[in-house]
Each structure stands twice: as structure tokens, then as C-alpha cells.
Amino acid sequence: MTHEFKTKGICPKALSFDIDDGILSNISFKGGCPGNLRAIAKLVEGQDAQKIAKHLEGINCLNKGTSCANELSKAIKKVLSRSQGSGTIPQGMDLNGLVKHPIKLPIGEMLMVGQADALMGLWYKKGAHLPGYLHELPNDPKLPVFKDLTLWLKDYFAGKNPSLKIPTRLYGSDFQKDIWELLETIPYRELLTYKELTTLYLAKTKRKTMSIRAVGGAVGRNPISILIPCHRVIAEKRKLGGYGGGLKAKSFLLELEGHKVNVDKMVLS
């Protein structure tokens, strides 16, 4: 989402930026000193928004009493303050009828999350991004979509490419959902790098730039692991990159699909 601000100073007169998964991108300034503005935009692109806001705080020009750095810091803080208090429940999600049920898999225990008509989550129980609201959900092993998913997973871990279609419903920012939809297009046994995924995102959205780090953040917050195959996204030089369920789980899934992994170095052989 793009955030636009007009400033009270002349350096700059206006600015805009995106914050996706806490990462700054597409920084743009109007007015002021072009050289300084380009340098700052390049410096903060792809960085953690909260850290950048703190780092740039109070940096002023000697002559004008303001600066693009300080104005950017104030604008970032305004955006971050708006998002505080929203909790971990994604915008638009209705918790009525939302239930969970654990399932034991070769890569560890996971939580299936869904409503009567759709699967909404398959989370690693000890994963890095497990939402807090899941702890409050009632348990229901009889949900039809859970039974379908169990059959799908049984086929998958038997080394098959399951044909059973599981209805899903995704909640997240527009940016996140764009990335998750691209993940769904990665065929069984095929791989993409984070850079290649970013290129696909730019082509899909017609945007000019996007931080690879921001794309990686959206990949890591994929709510339906395995079914939406975020494990098929790797880093450059055949390194595994990150994974919300841990690199052992990621290497297991990749090897299950026919890839060879050097588990000592966590790279594809």
C-alpha cells in the first residue's frame, strides 16, 4: 500500500512510500535536493521501516531546520502507529465458525484452520509466524475441509502430486495476497528464486520496483503451508533461504519432491 504525505518544509515538499510486511520500498520525494533525496531513497529501500524511522529521527538540515530524512521518519511513524492495536487477526477475517485441529505429519505437528466452506490455514505449531488468535479457536476434527486436507497430505507425503482440490480463503494485505497467488502457480517439483518471484510480482502488478526482502517477508507469512508451496522458493546460488517451519522441514519437502539437498550447508546439490 502506498502512503503519501505533504510536508511543512521545502526539503521535500511531498513524499510517498510503501510499507509491506514492515519493509520500506518505492520511496519517492518531490522538491528539495535531488542528490540527497536519491541517496536516502537508495539507502532505505528494502530496510525495516521501524528501524529506519528511529535511525532518521531528528536529522535536520543546518540551514532550513528540516530535512527529507526527518520528514520521512515522521511519516513512517504515522503509518506504523495506525497499524498498532489491530492485533494479529487479519483485516476482514470473521472468527465466527473458525475452528482448528492438529495434524501430525513427518515434518512435525501442524494446525489446520478453517470454516465450513474453506481452508484458511495450515500452520507449523512451532513455526515462526504462528498467529496468536489461533490459541483461542475451538477444536473441531469433523470439519469436511480438514478431512479433505488430510487425504491430500496423505497423498503428498506418499510422494504423489495430489489432484484433490481444496477450497481456500486467504486473508492478508493486497501485497501479501498477490505473492501468495503467485506461489500457487509454482508447479510440483519446480523452483523459483526470491528474485524471480519478485520479477513475476512486478510483471503482474505493473509496478516499477519492489524489495526482494519484502517479497520474502510475504512468502514467510503464507498461511497455508505446503498446499500453497512457499517451500519451492529458494535463495540465490541454490541456497535454501528461509522458511517459517524451519530449514529441516523445507529440506524434507524439497527432497520429497525429488530435489537433492546438502543438509550440512542447506543448499541444493
What does it look like?
The protein has 269 residues and is α+β, with helices and mostly antiparallel strands. It has two domains: 2-83; 99-268, Arc Repressor Mutant, subunit A (Orthogonal Bundle), CATH 1.10.10.10. It has eight helices and ten strands. A three-stranded antiparallel β-sheet has the order 1-2-3. The radius of gyration is 21 Å and the shape is globular. The mean pLDDT is 88.
- CATH architecture field of the largest domain: Orthogonal Bundle
Largest sheet: 3 strands, antiparallel
Flag low-confidence runs: none
Give the end-to-end Cα distance, rounded to a whole number of Å: 38 Å
Q: Approximately what portion of the residues adopt beta-strand conformation?
A: 15-25%
Count of individual domains = 2
Fourth CATH level, the homologous superfamily of the largest domain: Winged helix-like DNA-binding domain superfamily/Winged helix DNA-binding domain
Topology as H/E string? EEEHHHEEEHHEHHEHEE
Summarize model confidence as the mean pLDDT.
88
Please identify the structural class as seen in this structure.
alpha+beta
How big is the Rg? 21 Å
* CATH structural fold name of the largest domain: Arc Repressor Mutant, subunit A
- Level-1 CATH class name of the largest domain: Mainly Alpha
- The count of DSSP E runs of length 2 or more, i.e. the number of strands, is 10
List the strand order in the largest sheet. 1-2-3
* Number of helical elements: 8
Shape: globular
**Helix content bin:** 25-40%
